[in-house]
Amino acid sequence: MLLPAGFARAQAAAADFYDAPAFGNVSLLHITDCHAQLRPIHFREPSVNLGVGSMVGQAPHLVGARFLEHFAVKPGTAEAHAFTCLDFEEKAGVYGKVGGFAHLATLVKRVRANRPGALLLDGGDTWQGSGTALWTGGQDMVDAAKLLGIDIMTLHWECTYGQDRVKEVAEKDFAGTIDVVAQNIKTADFGDDVFKPFVMREVNGVPVAVIGQAFPYTPIANPRYMVADWTFGIQEENMQATVDAARAAGAAVVVVLSHNGMDVDLKMASRVSGIDAILGGHTHDGMPAPTMVANPGGKTLVTNAGSNGKFLGVLDLEVKDRRVTGFRYKLMPVFANLLAADPEMHAFIEKVRAPFAAKLDEVLAVSEGLLYRRGNFNGSFDQLILDALMMEKDAEIAFSPGFRWGTTVLPGQPITMENLLDQTAITYPYVTLNAMSGEQIKTVLEDVCDNLFNTDPYYQQGGDMVRVGGLSYSCDPTAPMGRRIQDMTVRGQPVEAGKTYKVAGWAPVSEEARTAGGEPVWELVARNLRARKTVAAPRLNLPTLKGVDGNPGLTA
Amino acid sequence: QALAEWNKQAFDAKTLDDAMKAMGAEAPANSGDVQIVASDIAENGAVVPVQAVSKLPKTEKIAILVEKNPSMLAASFDLGPETLPEVTARIKMGQTSNVIVVVKADGKFYMASKEIKVTLGGCGG
Amino acid sequence: MGSPMKIRATSKDGVTEIKVLMSHEMETGQRKDASGAVVPAWFINEVTAKLGDKTVLQAQWGPSVSKNPYLAFKVKGGQAGDKVTVTWVDNKGDTRTDTATVS
Ligand SMILES: [Mn+2]
Ligand SMILES: [Mn+2]
Prior knowledge:
The complex is a heterotrimer of chains A (556), B (125) and C (103).
Chain A: H1 5-18, E1 26-31, H2 64-71, H3 78-83, H4 88-95, H5 101-113, E2 119-122, H6 131-135, H7 139-148, E3 152-153, H8 163-173, E4 179-180, E5 186-187, E6 198-203, E7 206-213, H9 218-221, E8 230-231, H10 236-248, E9 253-258, H11 262-271, E10 277-280, E11 291-295, E12 298-304, E13 311-320, E14 323-333, H12 343-353, H13 357-360, E15 363-367, H14 380-393, E16 397-400, E17 414-416, H15 417-424, E18 431-437, H16 438-453, E19 467-469, E20 471-475, E21 485-490, E22 493-494, E23 500-506, H17 511-516, H18 521-532, E24 534-535, E25 544-545
Parallel strand pairs in A: 1-2, 2-3, 3-4, 7-9, 9-10, 10-12, 15-24, 16-23, 20-25
Antiparallel strand pairs in A: 1-13, 5-8, 6-7, 11-12, 13-14, 15-17, 16-19, 18-23, 20-21, 21-22
Chain B: H1 8-12, H2 16-22, E1 29-30, E2 34-37, E3 48-54, E4 59-66, E5 73-79, E6 83-91, E7 97-105, E8 108-116
Chain C: E1 6-12, E2 15-21, E3 44-51, E4 54-61, E5 70-76, E6 83-90, E7 95-101
Antiparallel strand pairs in C: 1-2, 2-5, 3-4, 3-6, 6-7
The complex binds manganese (II) ion (2 copies).
One manganese (II) ion (MN) binds next to loops of chain A.
């Protein structure tokens, strides 16, 4: 077999990398935000991930060459491909697909072989993101998580199946196998714990406390009616109390399994004492190295393990005399071509997929361009959705949510129903058509923009900017709320505050929208794609950016 | 202990100054000993949990105000001598606003304020 | 009369924590119904809490307190078996008293 030079080198290096001996005596393996991707996929990392205020140029707000420089990753390598968008199309051809639970399972077993007693932690966003997950109520992922050997997990998108479903899985499917932890989910009446705030596990004789931190803004970013009897929030004071309780209960190591998003984790690490490491997710930032954060109690490592099953985080700790004295961290890319599929997991995946295979494999159209989603302002797959919304609903403007999940389709590849569902499979997929005033449009854009670019991370919700079709605007991320969005025009005409515009959208969070019950967005987009057959590379509608020249979160 | 008459003037006040005056608290000093424990972003503007804590000795009264609500003064609590100076309530917020806690301790007034954001929601990672 | 309150009172390390959930619409007087008519203000405006015979907290509320109000506070002293009594009065003169036992 003739392998491209880059791939052959990667294969040789992989054995050393994946099988490297452990350090210390306590190991924690971490996956997060796989978004129900059971099979290997392509996933392009962002070319725009801007930091503002004190976050300019700090991890995770680095892209492309600046990312490689910061983390000393050699350009042109397999790792460089996994962590950045550089030469994405070419390198995707060389290194192939990433992730897939069968390949991940093989890696987990290999890594665990060198690390007896290692815990496998799942940061959440596991049950949502594919057609099969949606149609089985997350059951395929629940069973896959058990098969993979997850020990402890926390939550975000899981909650969009409703609080009763989450409780059912936690109490029945996971009984005796997986602990769901969340110090920040409480009952809405008396504020009681819904899940255990933390669990204590012995790892090679060392008591390790794993505290759960669910996504704090679940009832805001997703429909509140799904979790009507629960409250969330960052709950920093309660986090400190939980850390103290874990230490009092004898924990020699305290880690937080977090779905805060990385900027929130970094701030929390600077203010809460006694945490050894925060293993983070939600913002889908694959960070090759942890950030060390100082706080009044000492230092805390903050990691983020990317998304879509691309990575396995491996944190090795040396614990002596009941304290952490050293660490090694690796974020291992899961290259499907370098890791044989685990037969048991592979068989499981094929089995759960079989009843839906015909529907998932339908070719809707062929894409001439690269279709991806990640980036602060727009992605080509989002643009495809926006174009479909405007065409099918005869709307002058379209909005599509700034989700950070969604896999990548290479140029020349068919767009299957499965690819489309990777972008859209949610439990509130309704298409909406609203008459909005210019003023309302501005308010929406400012509101979402502040969730992304507030200089205080605790006010950030960890998504990207709402994707916009039909409307041109400029954006100054460094301006205060209310002044970031300027120069709005539709068809070359300035948007008037008092004039109404026809706006199509999807994924509404209000309960009224559920009652109204619009068409699922994948049906609308599928109809549009089938009619088009061949789809030219979408022309990205991007805002004119201001105030961010030279920002390392922007590719040159 | 007789119940004080409901402070209509304070609850009807249309400016922060008027509300403070009606409570007998003109221009209270900002104090680090007055703390507001609340989420930075409200999950639901109709139900915003706010814990008001005073570290000041002889705290006898704690009040919670929402600057941008039509009725600014939300609640005022008179504490018995054995009652700890920390109360939790759930309040309504029509829009992003400063929440202000006013404390009367040893006859003097102190305050703290915290912005709580009320957002439209949607989107996510 | 309204629906009963849910009261939880627990004593730990010499401090009694009292949590109360009341059932009340707490109409602001700002809201309009489907026909466009203003729904009149209707809200709890006074709350009194007793631990045993002692009044430990008196509150005055306005319409900015949430529907189905929640109140939590702590009192030095008190022990299991003590009685907690909470009374509310609303702006229409309706009133309700409920009791609970400290556990
Ligand atoms: Mn995610
Ligand atoms: Mn998430």
